[in-house]
Write a structure and sequence with these properties.
globular; single chain; binds adenosine monophosphate; five-stranded parallel β-sheet; Rossmann fold; alpha/beta
Length: 143
């Protein structure tokens, strides 16, 4: 098996994130790889279809700040350098693809709920990341 040298782990900042991070840590140690953490903050406007007559900038800023704070805390816990703690805004799948290309990532790690039936039709972030990925993708089954 070839070695991975730069691993991107995508975390959603729910209580499930540590499961994905622990697997990423194991892969990092096994491959002596560099680890990059990413959380993608979805633009609040998306959730409301952009038709609320309100300035959502402050809310967006708060979400960005909360994401950065949580990333920093995981960064300390998992010994990830500051420049490898990335909070970005957009759609998770496309931002993860973009970063994987820009940062020369050779393995992306995401969580997967193993959805079945109707839920599967709705799609998942893991599926979106897998389709169109330029590198290997490891889907960690969330318990
Ligand atoms: P989901 O399909 O949305 O339940 O998410 C499954 C996995 O996709 C999570 O465990 C994360 O690895 C990744 N993911 C979901 N949302 C985000 C996000 N906003 N930023 C980074 N990764 C995410």
């Amino acid at each position: 098996m070839s070695q991975y040298s730069k691993i991107l782990v995508a975390i959603d900042l729910t209580e499930e994130a540590p499961q994905v991070l622990k697997k990423a840590q194991m892969m990092r140690e096994a491959h002596q790889a560099e680890l990059v953490l990413v959380h993608v903050v979805e633009p609040v406007g998306y959730a409301y279809g952009g038709d609320i007559p309100m300035d959502l900038t402050e809310l967006q800023d708060q979400l960005d700040k909360a994401a950065k704070a949580q990333l920093e805390s995981y960064g300390k816990e998992y010994n990830v350098s500051k420049e490898n703690q990335i909070a970005t805004v957009g759609r998770p799948e496309s931002e993860i693809h973009r970063l994987a290309e820009d940062m020369d990532i050779d393995l992306v790690i995401v969580g997967s709920h193993g959805r079945k039936g109707f839920q599967l039709l709705l799609g998942s972030t893991a599926n979106g990341v897998l389709h169109g990925s330029v590198c290997d993708v490891l889907a960690v089954r969330i318990q």
